[in-house]
Amino acid sequence: MAIKDILIWPDPELAKVSEEVETIDDEIRALAEDLLETMYAADGVGLAAPQIGIHKRMVVVDIYGSEEDRPSGEEPLVIINPKFVHKEGELTWEEGCLSVPGEVGKVTRAGKVTMTYTDLDGNEQTIEAEGLKAVALQHECDHLDGKLFVEYLSRLKRNMIKKRMLKLKAEREEEDAAA
Ligand code: GNR
Ligand code: NI
To answer: Is residue 86 part of a domain?
Structure first.
């Protein structure tokens, strides 16, 4: 298990389309552990593999954000090769993204979704979700297609965010060079 660095937008790695997972092996099980650990360390409610530079169609979601706050019986979702089979309604949510730290923006997505995916045991699963869970599933799946929530914002807002992210990245690079 390891906490991985999360890529910051804009980064060409975040814009790539991720590849289907063919077999669930030790590498995939280790990736699931890393995604969960990295998500919890960053206080996120979801994380997609491409955010840590791994272009596989795999995401984790835990809308409770931490193991302490999660009701008993609920487990974090480890989702492999997700596909939406149904979307309905609309829901506008103020979204953030661990790859766009400190920024938020309103995004309108489907309000209710049905998704199929493969779990870590190789079983096909179907889940229905609404509210934050539906938002998070759609946000994470967008990452697998190289899409971030900033793409739903106005060009003006997106450009302001891009400037701040470039500044943040430059500052971090300076810190790393000094270390
Ligand atoms: O932690 C996260 N919070 C969040 C809040 C509103 C809508 C979507 C999200 S997902 C985000 C974690 C993340 O960036 N996943 O890719
Ligand atoms: Ni995100």
So the answer is: yes
Q: What confidence tier does 90 reach under pLDDT thresholds 50, 70, 90? A: very high
Range of the domain at 37: 12-178
- Given a contact cutoff of 8 angstroms between Cβ atoms, the answer to whether 130 and 112 are in contact is yes
Give yes or no for residue 44 CB within 6 A of ligand 1: yes
Q: What are phi and psi of 142, to 5 degrees?
A: -55, -40
| Within-domain flag for 1 | no
DSSP alpha helix (H) spans, the chain: 26-41, 131-144, 155-178
- Side chain identity at residue 86, one-letter code: H
**Ligand 1 atom nearest residue 98's Cα:** 14
Confidence category of residue 66, pLDDT binned at 50, 70, 90: confident
pTM of the model: 0.97
